[in-house]
What we know:
mainly beta, 53% strand, disordered C terminus
Amino acid sequence: YTENVIVTYDADEESYALSTTFPTEQPYASNASFAQNVSPMVAATKNKGSYAFMFKNIASWVNLYVKGSAKITKVVMKAANDDIAGDYIVTVKNGIDPIATINENGTSVKEITIDCGENGIQLSKDEATIFTFTTIPFEFDANEVSFDIYGEGVYMKDAYIIKKAGSFLRSNFHGISQNSPIEFLPNSVVEGETVQAILKGKGYPTI
Protein backbone atom coordinates (compact mmCIF):
# COMPACT_ATOMS: atom_id res chain seq x y z
CA TYR A 1 0.00 0.00 0.00
CA THR A 2 1.37 3.41 -0.96
CA GLU A 3 -0.07 6.90 -0.73
CA ASN A 4 1.14 10.35 -1.68
CA VAL A 5 1.09 12.80 1.24
CA ILE A 6 2.17 16.44 1.15
CA VAL A 7 3.26 17.86 4.51
CA THR A 8 3.62 21.55 5.33
CA TYR A 9 4.60 23.20 8.62
CA ASP A 10 2.94 26.27 10.15
CA ALA A 11 5.54 27.89 12.40
CA ASP A 12 3.05 30.33 13.96
CA GLU A 13 0.62 27.56 14.97
CA GLU A 14 3.36 24.98 15.51
CA SER A 15 1.28 22.50 13.56
CA TYR A 16 1.60 20.31 10.49
CA ALA A 17 -0.88 20.07 7.61
CA LEU A 18 -1.02 16.77 5.72
CA SER A 19 -2.67 16.82 2.30
CA THR A 20 -3.97 13.53 0.86
CA THR A 21 -7.15 11.88 -0.47
CA PHE A 22 -10.15 10.18 1.13
CA PRO A 23 -11.44 7.44 -1.22
CA THR A 24 -14.82 8.17 -2.80
CA GLU A 25 -15.27 4.49 -3.71
CA GLN A 26 -14.71 1.94 -0.96
CA PRO A 27 -14.84 -1.88 -1.12
CA TYR A 28 -17.40 -3.68 1.01
CA ALA A 29 -16.02 -5.11 4.26
CA SER A 30 -17.89 -7.65 6.38
CA ASN A 31 -18.35 -7.82 10.16
CA ALA A 32 -19.34 -4.15 10.52
CA SER A 33 -15.83 -3.03 9.64
CA PHE A 34 -14.27 -0.67 7.14
CA ALA A 35 -12.21 -1.84 4.19
CA GLN A 36 -8.43 -1.84 4.12
CA ASN A 37 -6.60 1.34 3.15
CA VAL A 38 -9.60 3.66 3.57
CA SER A 39 -9.28 4.78 7.20
CA PRO A 40 -6.01 6.66 7.83
CA MET A 41 -4.41 7.48 11.15
CA VAL A 42 -1.83 10.11 12.10
CA ALA A 43 0.62 10.29 14.97
CA ALA A 44 1.84 13.18 17.09
CA THR A 45 3.51 13.49 20.46
CA LYS A 46 1.58 14.67 23.49
CA ASN A 47 4.11 17.41 24.21
CA LYS A 48 6.66 19.26 22.14
CA GLY A 49 10.04 17.62 22.63
CA SER A 50 8.55 14.22 23.46
CA TYR A 51 9.39 11.18 21.32
CA ALA A 52 6.36 9.07 22.31
CA PHE A 53 4.10 9.14 19.28
CA MET A 54 0.37 8.43 19.68
CA PHE A 55 -1.58 7.28 16.62
CA LYS A 56 -5.14 8.59 16.30
CA ASN A 57 -7.94 8.00 13.80
CA ILE A 58 -8.88 10.70 11.33
CA ALA A 59 -12.16 9.32 10.02
CA SER A 60 -15.70 8.75 11.21
CA TRP A 61 -17.58 5.50 10.39
CA VAL A 62 -21.23 5.17 9.42
CA ASN A 63 -22.97 1.78 9.62
CA LEU A 64 -26.09 1.26 7.50
CA TYR A 65 -28.23 -1.76 8.48
CA VAL A 66 -30.13 -3.52 5.67
CA LYS A 67 -32.25 -6.70 5.47
CA GLY A 68 -33.99 -8.28 2.50
CA SER A 69 -33.91 -10.81 -0.31
CA ALA A 70 -31.89 -8.98 -2.97
CA LYS A 71 -28.22 -9.19 -3.87
CA ILE A 72 -26.64 -5.75 -3.38
CA THR A 73 -24.19 -4.31 -5.90
CA LYS A 74 -23.47 -0.96 -4.28
CA VAL A 75 -24.66 1.42 -1.55
CA VAL A 76 -24.27 5.20 -1.73
CA MET A 77 -24.18 7.75 1.10
CA LYS A 78 -25.05 11.30 -0.01
CA ALA A 79 -24.66 14.65 1.74
CA ALA A 80 -26.63 17.43 0.08
CA ASN A 81 -24.61 20.35 1.47
CA ASP A 82 -21.19 18.95 2.41
CA ASP A 83 -18.25 17.43 0.58
CA ILE A 84 -17.43 14.24 2.47
CA ALA A 85 -14.67 12.58 0.43
CA GLY A 86 -11.86 13.41 -1.96
CA ASP A 87 -8.88 15.68 -1.34
CA TYR A 88 -8.54 16.78 2.27
CA ILE A 89 -6.13 18.29 4.78
CA VAL A 90 -5.39 16.96 8.26
CA THR A 91 -4.08 19.41 10.85
CA VAL A 92 -1.76 17.71 13.35
CA LYS A 93 -0.48 19.39 16.50
CA ASN A 94 1.12 18.21 19.72
CA GLY A 95 -1.50 17.18 22.29
CA ILE A 96 -4.46 17.98 20.01
CA ASP A 97 -6.77 15.53 18.22
CA PRO A 98 -6.26 15.59 14.42
CA ILE A 99 -8.74 17.68 12.45
CA ALA A 100 -9.70 16.71 8.87
CA THR A 101 -11.12 19.32 6.50
CA ILE A 102 -11.82 19.34 2.78
CA ASN A 103 -9.02 20.83 0.67
CA GLU A 104 -10.69 23.76 -1.10
CA ASN A 105 -7.96 23.70 -3.76
CA GLY A 106 -8.50 20.02 -4.53
CA THR A 107 -11.28 17.79 -5.84
CA SER A 108 -14.02 16.60 -3.51
CA VAL A 109 -17.48 15.06 -3.74
CA LYS A 110 -20.73 14.90 -1.76
CA GLU A 111 -21.13 11.13 -1.87
CA ILE A 112 -19.32 7.89 -1.01
CA THR A 113 -19.98 4.56 -2.73
CA ILE A 114 -19.48 1.12 -1.21
CA ASP A 115 -18.71 -1.29 -4.06
CA CYS A 116 -19.91 -4.83 -3.34
CA GLY A 117 -17.75 -6.42 -6.03
CA GLU A 118 -18.54 -8.59 -9.03
CA ASN A 119 -20.53 -11.14 -7.04
CA GLY A 120 -22.46 -8.63 -4.93
CA ILE A 121 -23.59 -9.12 -1.32
CA GLN A 122 -26.61 -11.34 -0.68
CA LEU A 123 -28.94 -9.90 1.95
CA SER A 124 -30.68 -11.95 4.63
CA LYS A 125 -34.32 -11.53 5.66
CA ASP A 126 -33.46 -12.54 9.23
CA GLU A 127 -30.24 -10.73 10.05
CA ALA A 128 -29.16 -7.24 8.97
CA THR A 129 -26.14 -6.81 6.73
CA ILE A 130 -24.01 -3.85 7.77
CA PHE A 131 -22.45 -1.51 5.20
CA THR A 132 -19.73 0.67 6.75
CA PHE A 133 -18.83 4.03 5.19
CA THR A 134 -15.58 5.77 6.10
CA THR A 135 -16.06 9.53 5.91
CA ILE A 136 -14.51 12.80 6.90
CA PRO A 137 -16.16 13.91 10.19
CA PHE A 138 -18.85 16.51 9.54
CA GLU A 139 -22.00 18.09 10.93
CA PHE A 140 -25.26 17.88 9.01
CA ASP A 141 -28.75 19.38 9.00
CA ALA A 142 -32.03 17.47 9.11
CA ASN A 143 -32.81 15.70 5.81
CA GLU A 144 -29.33 16.43 4.44
CA VAL A 145 -27.84 12.91 4.56
CA SER A 146 -29.45 10.06 2.64
CA PHE A 147 -28.61 6.60 1.29
CA ASP A 148 -29.29 4.85 -2.04
CA ILE A 149 -29.19 1.06 -2.36
CA TYR A 150 -28.58 -0.74 -5.67
CA GLY A 151 -29.23 -4.43 -6.34
CA GLU A 152 -29.29 -6.64 -9.37
CA GLY A 153 -32.00 -5.11 -11.54
CA VAL A 154 -33.47 -3.05 -8.70
CA TYR A 155 -32.61 0.07 -6.74
CA MET A 156 -33.95 2.05 -3.82
CA LYS A 157 -33.39 5.80 -4.08
CA ASP A 158 -33.30 7.62 -0.73
CA ALA A 159 -33.76 4.30 1.06
CA TYR A 160 -33.02 6.13 4.28
CA ILE A 161 -32.96 9.86 5.06
CA ILE A 162 -31.66 11.10 8.39
CA LYS A 163 -34.50 13.26 9.68
CA LYS A 164 -32.59 14.95 12.49
CA ALA A 165 -29.56 17.24 12.53
CA GLY A 166 -26.43 15.68 13.97
CA SER A 167 -22.76 15.02 13.42
CA PHE A 168 -20.46 12.18 12.49
CA LEU A 169 -17.63 12.40 15.02
CA ARG A 170 -13.99 11.50 14.56
CA SER A 171 -13.08 7.98 15.69
CA ASN A 172 -16.72 6.97 16.29
CA PHE A 173 -19.07 4.41 14.73
CA HIS A 174 -22.59 5.71 14.02
CA GLY A 175 -25.48 3.29 13.53
CA ILE A 176 -28.08 4.20 10.89
CA SER A 177 -31.37 2.25 10.87
CA GLN A 178 -29.84 0.02 13.54
CA ASN A 179 -33.04 -0.32 15.59
CA SER A 180 -35.22 -0.88 12.52
CA PRO A 181 -33.13 -2.03 9.55
CA ILE A 182 -34.09 -1.02 6.04
CA GLU A 183 -35.89 -3.86 4.24
CA PHE A 184 -34.83 -4.18 0.62
CA LEU A 185 -37.69 -6.24 -0.86
CA PRO A 186 -38.23 -5.68 -4.61
CA ASN A 187 -41.82 -6.27 -5.61
CA SER A 188 -41.10 -6.74 -9.31
CA VAL A 189 -37.81 -7.12 -11.09
CA VAL A 190 -37.62 -7.13 -14.87
CA GLU A 191 -34.34 -8.38 -16.31
CA GLY A 192 -32.34 -5.49 -17.71
CA GLU A 193 -34.64 -2.91 -16.17
CA THR A 194 -34.15 -0.88 -13.01
CA VAL A 195 -37.25 -0.54 -10.85
CA GLN A 196 -38.02 1.05 -7.52
CA ALA A 197 -38.05 -1.28 -4.52
CA ILE A 198 -40.50 -1.42 -1.64
CA LEU A 199 -39.38 0.36 1.51
CA LYS A 200 -40.62 -1.28 4.68
CA GLY A 201 -39.81 -0.06 8.16
CA LYS A 202 -38.28 3.28 9.03
CA GLY A 203 -35.93 3.60 11.96
CA TYR A 204 -34.24 6.58 13.52
CA PRO A 205 -30.46 6.93 13.56
CA THR A 206 -28.64 6.28 16.80
CA ILE A 207 -26.05 9.02 16.60
